[in-house]
Amino acid sequence: MYMTNIETVPGKTIIDCYGVVSGSTVRAKHVGRDIMAGIKNVFGGELRGYTELLNESRDEAIKRMQAQAAELGANAIINVRFSTSSIAAGAAEIYVYGTAVRVG
Amino acid sequence: MLPLLTFLTLLLLGYLSGQWLERRHYRSIIEREQQLQNLPHSNSRDLLLPMQDITRVELLAGSVVISIDYFKRVVAILRSLVGGPVASYETLIDRARREAILRLKQQCPDACQLINIRIETSAIHNAAGNGIGSVELLAYGTAIYGRVQTATTAATASVLAASLQSITH
Q: InterPro entries from the xrefs (chain A) (predicted)?
């Protein structure tokens, strides 16, 4: 599955368009990570636990989007956009969306 | 007396470790930026360099969650009383943004170019939920693999185009 965040797939032409596909995940951080983050909030620095968590969630959201596109018969997703929002303290939503197309 | 003592200890700890971590982080950022400066990248949608053939196109993302230290948070709270620039947050976001772009670039050392880079910021609530505890920076873009059109092929192409134009006219 080709994925780009521009309007085309360079080197390919778009044959068919299937509309917008999206995938999302809502993840909660576990208590251990929250405690560690609390300690880190005193010292500063990177919160590796959160970085990892958000990366995993993003991969999961992308997988869901790809599954939806594959179901429609698409072989590429163009114009992919990411968005992150914290819907409640301790939980984050990762949302990925793009346009499913067939290229050749 | 005890709360004041805890506060001052946290302040000192935050100041020392925060300064140390920031300096170390900036050193590593500058070093890696120099290593990766040969990869052409832009935030425009068009190809930076003309390509002869494209073998692979890939969507990549790099992200980092970074947290502020206790001292900087206190300084920012004090600053918000009088208004004005909050320098302590500026360096935090700057570091995170450069780190996110570096992680994006580190994933495609063999790519010819990296185009349409987009950067997003989102605040992550901390456990207590009081203001900015940490921020997430996400950078994503499209990596293009293949062969860049060399100067000679580009020159031939332009000569061909010129002769074509003269034929049609």
A: UPF0145_dom_sf, UPF0145_YbjQ-like
